[in-house]
Every structure is written in C-alpha cells, then in structure tokens.
Specification:
Elements (H helix, E strand, L loop, with lengths): L1 H33 L7 H53 L2 H6 L2 H43 L1 H8 L1 H39 L1 H6 L3 H54 L4 H42 L20 E8 L9 E8 L4 E6 L5 H8 L7 E6 L2 E2 L5 H5 L2 E4 L10 H6 L10 H10 L3 H6 L17 H13 L5 E5 L7 H14 L4 E6 L10 E6 L2 E6 L1 H7 L2 H20 L1
Parallel strand pairs: 3-8, 3-9, 6-7, 7-8
Antiparallel strand pairs: 1-2, 1-4, 4-5, 9-10
Bound molecules: adenosine-5'-triphosphate (ATP) and magnesium ion.
Length: 578
C-alpha cells in the first residue's frame, strides 16, 4: 500500500515540471512581445530563477518518492520469491522417486529458478511499472486534455500503435530468449558430460568428436543469439520513430494553433515534454503485458508441480511398542511402470528379527529393487510386505525408514567434509566424537587412509576436494551406517569394489557388530555368504533357491554354479600370482 502512495506522489511531482516550464516560457514570450528591444530586466530574471528552483525541487521530491516506492515493492517481491522458492523445494523433497524419474532434472530445476524468477518479475517490476504508468497516464492525459483537447488527440494518436508494437516485440524477444536458454542448457550439459566423462573420452581418444559436437551446438546458440539481436535492434528505433512522429504532429498542429491564438508557445513546449514523459509508460504497457503473460504461464507450471501429490503416502503407525521386527514378503509382484516387464514375481519370504541373511543373484535379477521395496521407495502392485506384522503402507514413512539403515549400491557422498558425510545419517540431536568416528573408520579399514588425507576428518570430498576411490566410497558408506543404531541393516552390494582381504574382514566385523540385529546383505559374491543364517537366490525376479550355504552347495543349483565360477576365477588369479 505504501508503494502505491509513493508512486502517486512521485508522479504528481513529475507532472508539475512541464507546467512550470510552460509558465516560464509564456512569461518570456510575453516579455519579448511587450518590449521589442530585448533586454533582460531584473523582474524576469528573478522569475526565471524562481521557476528553475521549483523545477529542481519537484525533480528532487519525485526522485525521493521513486526511491521509496522501489524500496517497498522490490523488497516485497523478493520476499515473496524467497517464500515461493522454499515452498517448491520443500515440496520436491516430499515427492517420491518415481516423480524424479518421470521428470527431467533440467525441468525440475527450471521450475525453481526461471519460473520463480518470472513470477517475481510480475510481482515486482511489472506491478511497479504497471501501476506507475497507469497513474502517470491518468494524470498526464487529464492535464493535456485540460490544456487543449484536439492537440492532445492528435499527439496521442501514434501512442497505442507504439504500445502494440512493443508488446509484439517484447514477446518476440522473450520467445527467442527462451530458445537461447534451452540451447544454453544443451550446451552446458554437453560440456558437463564432457568433463565428468573426461577419462573415458581421453582413453578412447574421442576428444575430436566432443569438440565437434560442442561446436555444432555452439553454432546453433550463436545463430539464435543473432536472431535475438535483430529483434533487439528494432526495439529502440521503432520506439523513437513513433515518438518523433508524435512530436512532429504536436509542433505542426500546435504551430498552426499558435497562429490562431488558441494555444501559446509555452503549451507546445509543455506538450513535447508530456510526450516524452509518456514514452516510457507507453512502451512499458507492452512490456508489462508480455511479462504478465509469461508469469501466468510460469505460475501455471509451478502449480502443476505443487499440485502433484506423492504417490506414496505415509501411514499412521509409528512402531513405538514394536518388539519384533520381522520382515515378511507375501506373494509380492512388482513392476516399475505399467508397460515394463515385472521385476519381482510372486515372491514370498520372511526374515526374522536378528537373522543374518544374504540375497544373491545375477546382475539384473531384482536385488536392489527388493531393497527399495523394503524401504517403500515404491509401492507394490500385488501381495503385501509387512514389517513387524504391519503392512508397509500402514507405517509412518519416516518411522519406517528410521528403523532401517540402508547402504545403497552406488554410495552417494556430498561435497562436504568426511566428518559431515558420516554425521549426515544421524538425527539432529545426536552427536558423535572424533574418537568414535575414527573407530568406525577403523572397523571398515579406513582409519589409516583418512589420517593420510591432508586434513584428516576435515578433508572435503567431491568437486571441491579430493576424489575417493570406488572402494573408499563404499567403505565410507558402510561406516556411515555404523554410526546409526537401528534394528535392521540393509546393505546393497557395498563391497563390490573392495579387495578380497578387506572384504572378509568387513564381513566378519558385520557379523560381530550386528549380532543382535537383523542384517540383510545383498551381494554377487558367494564368499560373503558363508556365515549367513539364510541365503535367498533371485533369478529374473523369482526366488529360485533358499537355505544355508551348505544346503545350497549341496543343492547343485544356480548358487552352486555361481560358487564354482567364483572359485575358478580365484584359482586362476592365484596361479597368476604364483
Ligand atoms: N528405476 C527403474 N526403472 C525401471 N526399471 C528399473 C529400474 N531399476 C531397475 N530396473 C530394472 O529392474 C530390473 C532389476 O534391477 P535391479 O537393479 O533390481 O537388479 P540387481 O539385481 O540389483 O542388479 P545388480 O546386481 O546389477 O545391481 C532390471 O532389469 C532393471 O533394468
Ligand atoms: Mg543392484
């Protein structure tokens, strides 16, 4: 509201200026007419001085109020932008994995950056200038018509055309800028992929291909930019042309009227200033209209996302008094989407509390999918999964997930210190000392390596710091779950990049550490399953074998074959070493 008041005040002071100038001019003309021999008398010069100061004063006041209005409105629009952005991000994090698979990352990102920005442009600048020009318009036109009706009509005639042209041109500019934005996205993703895949590009000697690819898109970008430049170049000349025409009309028709004596020379000067004053608002009408249109489109896209409900809704059961954390699969069927093939087929099994089980199977057999189903990252189509005899959908999602410590197959580490990466899995009120951290690292055989890093636990990982090897990442991922105390531990193939000796130590450590806990270890390697209470073998989503290590070897099925293959490879290796 303050903003609107400031706009009006600022415009009122702006409008005084031409009137003062007119009076001053008329005084001079009258003076010249009355005494043919031109000589400055003191009365006139002090009058002119007075007018000059008045104009200056008005300009100053106008400026002050303009400052206040920008302050109020721009600040307000920034605050709204902040809220909107926070709301969208928060909503994103509530949505399930399927949403992120459906929508491209670029799209998700542009909602939170570009679309929010467009809405802000509407709330801030567009609103500001829109309102500004309306008040200015009303005041200027009112004064113009009061001074001379027909002269006003003629001078204002070209202005609507100007408005329309600017609207069209702005739209064109925005369209082309949008194309440029998209192309820029293509360009950056090529560059980015090139950098992250630099090893493979270099090793296959494909630098030239990438340069060509980049060159092609770069050329496209440059063409699009040229297109924009052409439209841009038209913008100001067309504006000035129309203003010129308006001024010309004013002077011509006004001149005729001065002859007739209906208007004074001062009036003409006043009108010319009015026209110049109207230039900006009139062009802004077109500009604002175009921004409002885009903001509307952006708001619609934002709302589309905000209206997306997560498919996986949280239940009410919090598991407070739960004693037995048995996991049961009953005739479970699952596929990722309607068209694709089933990934889990009629699977039934039960993992008792405190049991240590392994899930093995060839690549693509559905092991990781099974793990994600236990965490309820996806909902199953048929059958049911229960934890502690409660169906998973009945569980409160955050309680369900906090009963399970999960190490995903591809451990993700944040670009942060080692300490913070481990602490990440702790609750807010939990803390862990450096000594305890080092102990955790020791149990995955990583303490010495971390001590060798330049800053120890404070070493930053990822883009801003050092890069860990595959095995180091996996072991850090395991150490992270060690910091948590939960009834169930679920480790997905997290030793695949670790050497055999370290692997055995870590598996032994797992058995000791999680003696009283449920441990589910997903793996390719038969050697890891020796001391397990039970082993489940998956093949194409079907549970094909189950039993202890000895039973399965006895059984001479898939498990046995995998075992033979593994021992053969091991033997070959040891022969090579000797
Ligand atoms: N997010 C997904 N969307 C669609 N299909 C998927 C998705 N994830 C996995 N699949 C498919 O589901 C099947 C099982 O994949 P899954 O990752 O569970 O196998 P896995 O046993 O963990 O294999 P690996 O040992 O290589 O890790 C595969 O055919 C895979 O193509
Ligand atoms: Mg997997």
């Amino acid at each position: 509201m303050w903003g609107i008041l400031f706009i009006t005040l600022s415009n009122l002071f702006r409008i005084f200026q031409p009137q003062l100038i007119r009076e001053a001019l008329d005084k001079i003309v009258a003076y010249i007419n009355s005494s043919p021999e031109v000589k400055l008398n003191s009365q006139l010069s002090s009058d002119l001085m007075y007018f000059g100061l008045m104009v200056l004063g008005c300009a100053l006041l106008m400026g002050v109020f303009m400052y206040f209005m920008r302050q109020t409105i721009i600040v307000m629009s920034r605050l709204i932008e902040y809220d909107l952005r926070k709301k969208i991000f928060n909503h994103y994090l509530q949505l399930d994995l399927a949403f992120f698979k459906r929508n491209k990352t670029g799209d998700i990102m542009s909602r939170i950056s570009e679309d929010v920005n467009k809405v802000r442009m509407y709330l801030g600048p567009a609103f500001l200038y829109g309102f500004n020009l309306i008040t200015l318009f009303i005041i200027v036109i009112f004064t113009m018509f009061k001074v001379n009706f027909w002269l006003s009509v003629y001078t204002l005639l070209p202005l609507p055309i100007l408005s329309f042209i600017i609207y069209k041109v702005s739209n064109l500019i925005h369209q082309r800028s949008a194309q440029i934005q998209t192309q820029l996205g293509v360009l950056t993703s090529i560059a980015q992929e090139g950098f992250s895949g630099i090893r493979i590009i270099k090793s296959f000697h494909k630098e030239r291909d990438w340069v060509q690819k980049f060159d092609k898109e770069s050329q496209e970008y440059s063409n699009l930019s040229m297109n924009l430049a052409k439209v841009d170049a038209m913008f100001f000349p067309s504006m000035f042309l129309l203003i010129g025409i308006s001024t010309l009309i004013t002077i011509y028709i006004g001149g005729l009227d001065v002859y007739k004596g209906t208007v004074t020379a001062g009036n003409i000067a006043e009108f010319v200033i009015y026209i110049n004053m109207l230039t900006w608002p009139v062009s802004a009408i077109g500009w604002c209209a175009s921004i409002i249109q885009q903001a509307e489109a952006s708001q619609k896209r934002i709302n589309e996302f905000l209206d997306t409900e997560p498919d996986i809704l949280s239940g009410n059961y919090k598991g407070e008094d739960l004693k037995n954390y048995e996991i049961k699969f009953d005739q479970v069927n699952f596929k990722y989407d309607d068209e694709s093939d089933p990934v889990i087929v009629d699977l039934s099994m039960s993992i008792k509390q405190g049991e240590h089980v392994a899930i093995v199977g060839r690549t693509g057999s559905g092991k990781s999918t099974l793990a994600e189903l236990i965490l309820r990252m996806y909902d199953i189509q048929k059958g049911q999964i229960t934890l502690g005899s409660k169906n998973l959908p009945e569980w409160n999602l955050s309680n369900l997930r906090s009963t399970i410590s999960y190490v995903p197959q591809d451990v993700f580490l944040f670009s942060d210190t080692i300490r913070n990466n481990i602490k990440f899995c702790l609750a807010e009120d939990q803390n862990i000392s450096d000594e305890e951290l080092m102990k955790l690292l020791e149990s995955v055989g990583m303490d010495q390596e971390v001590l060798k890093f330049p800053e120890g636990l404070d070493t930053i990982l990822g883009e801003r710091g050092i890069t860990l090897s595959g095995g180091q990442r996996q072991r850090l991922g395991i150490a992270r779950t060690y910091a948590r105390d939960t009834p169930i531990y679920l480790l997905d193939d997290c030793l695949s990049a670790v050497d055999a000796g370290t692997e055995e130590k870590i598996v032994q450590n797992l058995h000791q550490r999680f003696d009283q806990k449920t441990l589910i270890l997903i793996t390719h390697r038969i050697s890891q399953t020796k001391d397990m209470d039970k082993i489940y073998v998956l093949e194409n989503g079907l549970l094909v074998e189950q039993g202890t290590y000895e039973e399965l070897i006895e059984n001479k099925g898939i498990f046995y074959k995998m075992h033979l293959l593994e021992s053969a490879i091991k033997k070959e290796k040891s022969v090579e070493l000797n």
